[in-house]
C-alpha cells in the first residue's frame, strides 16, 4: 500500500522540493517533494475585526463530505464545543468557480464572527468528490484539519436518490423509480452519478496527494447516528480540543428515532429532512450494490488503514 501511495505522489509531483515543507510531513512521506502551487493570497487589509472583540477567521477545520454522510449532524454536534465557531451555510468556495474567483478575502467574509481563541469550521459536502478541491484547500493552508464523515456506500446512494426525489417532488417534477436509475439491462448502471460519489477510494486518493493521512479524520456516520458521544469524543481528540462534549448534550427523541442536542439547556433537533426513510429496494438489487462496492470499499480501507462495518 505504501508503495502504491508513493507511486501516486510521484506521479503528480515532479517539481523540486521547497525548503518550507514542514518536517513532520516529510516523516510521513520520506523523500517526497510537496505539491507545487502558490499559496492563495489573502489581503491583510481586508476588514475582519469587529469592535465587540470578535473577528472573522479562515477555517482551521473543514468538513469536506460526503454528501448524505451526516455532515449537518456533525457540524451541529461540533458546535456544542465552546472553542468552535461554525459557518451556518455551505460556502462552496473551493468547488464553485464563481466563488473561488472572488478569492480568499471573499471566503473570509463568509465566516462567522468568533473570538480569537476559537477555531472556525466550515462544511461543504461536495468538496470531497471534487477533484480540483484538495489542491485549492492545500494552497489556503497545508496544515488545515479535515473531517470526512462517511456511511455505508449503498445507504449513501439510496439517501442521495431520496434527496433528489424529494427536491424534484417539491418542484412538481417527475422522478424515475429507483430501480430504473440503479439498473440498466439488469446490471448496475455505471452511469448513475450517485454511485461514483460512493467510490470513496477514488476521492480520498485525490486528497492524499496533498494531505497526510494524519490530517484527515474519518467519522463513522452510521455510528454517529446510533451513538454520537464516542464519535464526538474522537473528533475532540483529533482536533486537540479540550474534552467538553458529554452525555448530557444528547437525548434520544423517540418520535424522530434520532438523537437531538442539548446546548446550554436549549434543545434542538435536526431538520425533518434529515433521516428520511429510504425507498424499499428489491433485495436482489441491494445484493448487486453490495457486490459492486465490495472491492472499492476494500481499497478505501487500505488507503486509510482502517475498516468500517459496511455491507
Ligand atoms: C486589498 O484590499 C483593499 C481594500 O479592501 C484594496 O483597495 C486593495 O486593492 C487590495 N490589495 C490587493 C493587493 O488585492
Ligand atoms: C459581534 O459583532 C458581530 C458583527 O456585527 C456580530 O455578528 C456578533 O453577533 C457580535 N458578537 C457578540 C458576542 O456581540
Ligand atoms: C464513474 O465511475 C466509472 C467507473 O466505475 C467511470 O467509468 C465513469 O467515468 C465515472 N463517471 C464519472 C462521471 O465520473
Ligand atoms: C456536561 O457538560 C456541561 C457543560 O456543557 C456541564 O454543565 C455538565 O456538568 C457536564 N456533565 C457531566 C456529567 O460531566
Ligand atoms: C421530538 O421529535 C418530534 C418530531 O420531529 C418533535 O415534534 C418534538 O418536538 C421532539 N421533541 C423533543 C423533546 O425534542
Automatic annotation (TrEMBL):
Its recorded name reads: Sulfotransferase
GO cellular component labels: Golgi lumen
Chief localisation class: Golgi
Q: What function is annotated for this protein?
A: Sulfotransferase that utilizes 3'-phospho-5'-adenylyl sulfate (PAPS) to catalyze the transfer of a sulfo group to position 3 of glucosamine residues in heparan. Catalyzes the rate limiting step in the biosynthesis of heparan sulfate (HSact). This modification is a crucial step in the biosynthesis of anticoagulant heparan sulfate as it completes the structure of the antithrombin pentasaccharide binding site.
Q: What Pfam families does the record tag this protein with? A: Sulfotransfer_1
Name the positions where 3'-phosphoadenylyl sulfate binds. Answer: 68-72, 151, 159, 259, 274-278
What InterPro entries does the entry give? NST/OST (IPR037359), P-loop_NTPase (IPR027417), Sulfotransferase_dom (IPR000863)
Where is the Sulfotransferase domain positioned along the sequence?
Answer: 60-295
GO BP annotations listed: glycosaminoglycan biosynthetic process
For this chain, the family text in UniProt reads: Belongs to the sulfotransferase 1 family.
| Location relative to the cell | Golgi apparatus lumen
EC numbers listed for it are: 2.8.2.-
Q: Where is the composition biased (Polar residues)?
A: 43-54
Q: What class of enzyme is it?
A: transferase
- A single Gene Ontology molecular function, please? [heparan sulfate]-glucosamine 3-sulfotransferase activity
The segments labelled Disordered in the record are: 21-54
Q: Does the keyword Transferase apply?
A: yes
Using the record, list the residue span of the signal peptide; answer none if the entry has no such feature: 1-20
| Record keywords, A-Z | Disulfide bond, Glycoprotein, Golgi apparatus, Signal, Transferase
What organism is the protein native to?
Answer: Coilia grayii (Gray's grenadier anchovy)
Catalytic activity of the protein: alpha-D-glucosaminyl-[heparan sulfate](n) + 3'-phosphoadenylyl sulfate = 3-sulfo-alpha-D-glucosaminyl-[heparan sulfate](n) + adenosine 3',5'-bisphosphate + H(+)
**Catalytic center residues:** 68
Residue pairs linked by disulfide bridges in the UniProt entry: 260-269
Amino acid at each position: 500500500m505504501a508503495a502504491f501511495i508513493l507511486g501516486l505522489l510521484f506521479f503528480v509531483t515532479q517539481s523540486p522540493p521547497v525548503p518550507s515543507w514542514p518536517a513532520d510531513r516529510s516523516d510521513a512521506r520520506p523523500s517526497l517533494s510537496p505539491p507545487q502551487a502558490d499559496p492563495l493570497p489573502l489581503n491583510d487589509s481586508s476588514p475582519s475585526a469587529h469592535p465587540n472583540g470578535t473577528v472573522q477567521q479562515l477555517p482551521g477545520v473543514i468538513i469536506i463530505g460526503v454528501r448524505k454522510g451526516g455532515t449537518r449532524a456533525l457540524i451541529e454536534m461540533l458546535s456544542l464545543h465552546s472553542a468552535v465557531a461554525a459557518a451556518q451555510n455551505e460556502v462552496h468556495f473551493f468547488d464553485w468557480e464563481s466563488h473561488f474567483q472572488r478569492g480568499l478575502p471573499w471566503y473570509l467574509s463568509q465566516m462567522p464572527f468568533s473570538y480569537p481563541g476559537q477555531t472556525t469550521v466550515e462544511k461543504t459536502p461536495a468538496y470531497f468528490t471534487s477533484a480540483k478541491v484538495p489542491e485549492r484547500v492545500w494552497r489556503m493552508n497545508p496544515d488545515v484539519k479535515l473531517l470526512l464523515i462517511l456511511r455505508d456506500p449503498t445507504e449513501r446512494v439510496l439517501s442521495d436518490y431520496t434527496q433528489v426525489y424529494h427536491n424534484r417532488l417539491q418542484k412538481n417534477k417527475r422522478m424515475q423509480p429507483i430501480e430504473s436509475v440503479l439498473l440498466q439491462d439488469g446490471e448496475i448502471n455505471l452511469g448513475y452519478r450517485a454511485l461514483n460519489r460512493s467510490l470513496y477510494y477514488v476521492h480520498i486518493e485525490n486528497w492524499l496527494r496533498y494531505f497526510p493521512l494524519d490530517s484527515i479524520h474519518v467519522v463513522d456516520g452510521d455510528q454517529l447516528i446510533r451513538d454520537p458521544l464516542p464519535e464526538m469524543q474522537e473528533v475532540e481528540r483529533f482536533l486537540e480540543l479540550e474534552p467538553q462534549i458529554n452525555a448530557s448534550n444528547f437525548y434520544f427523541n423517540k418520535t424522530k428515532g434520532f438523537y437531538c442536542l442539548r446546548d446550554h439547556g436549549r434543545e434542538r433537533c435536526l431538520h425533518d429532512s434529515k433521516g428520511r426513510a429510504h425507498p424499499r429496494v428489491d433485495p436482489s438489487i441491494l445484493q448487486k450494490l453490495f457486490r459492486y462496492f465490495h472491492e472499492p470499499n476494500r481499497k478505501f480501507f487500505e488507503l486509510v488503514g482502517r475498516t468500517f462495518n459496511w455491507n
